[in-house]
Amino acid sequence: MSGANATAASWFVVSCLAISILVTDRQTDWLVGVRTVLSFPLGLVYTVAEVPYALYVRVDKALEVSIDTEAAYQQLRAEYAGLRAEALKIGALERENNELRSLLGVSKATRMETKYASVMDISVSSFRQQIVVDRGLIDGVYEGQVAIDAVGLVGLVTEVMVNRARVRLLTDGDVAIPLMFERSGVRTMGIGQGGSNYSLKLPFLTRNSDIHEGDLLVSSGLGGRYPEGYPVAIVESISESTAHSFLEVTAQPVVELDKLAHVLLLSSTDQDAQD
Predict the structure, then answer these.
(1) I want to staple 135 with a disulfide (CB 3.0 to 4.6 A). Which of 75, 117, 164, 252 is the partner?
(2) Residue 5 CA to its chain's centroid (Å)
């Protein structure tokens, strides 16, 4: 028998056997036990075959959760940043309100008329220490008008424009202000040191002057330019000069001149007192 005939005969036998098994399984229950036995290895094959797909599903879900978590995290970060910005804004508004309340208290306490002004610019150089405020001729501001804040004296208006004015700070190098020690009543002059140094020199105090570090200096009112009794500076240091009999005294302004945001302009009832 040739090889082709043997193969055909084999396929015929297998086909007949398969048909017989199908008919037997269809008509009787003889093969139930066989099917049960064969189901175990087949089930194992199915289980192994499903492992890659199950792993794919799990990884896909894990990635989805990770992406959602990252998105939620970024949103929370954005919301947190927004809340922090709002908190900073609220803090700034609270500070401004407190300052305005303090200025209102000063305005009520003084007998002079006051005009509220916001600081637009602070200019400090080796020649000048001054600020620019948002009030001018149209608001009744005039040269020689005194500027104060809730703590003490700030300076003097030296230039007036239509809607703004320049205020020379009391620590400017060209400023001299008559002062008095609140505790002892000793009178002296405060000379601005200028530059970037917000301080005053007190050059005319003798060795026997009744002064101490920490003493408060107020405006004496002499000369009529600055009103009497406003806090100006606190004595910072006292040293004896070997060259002459006068003390070397420096004082720091009670007002933080480099942080000014608002001032009050005092309106004298007698403007003839100006220089």
Answers:
(1) 117
(2) 97
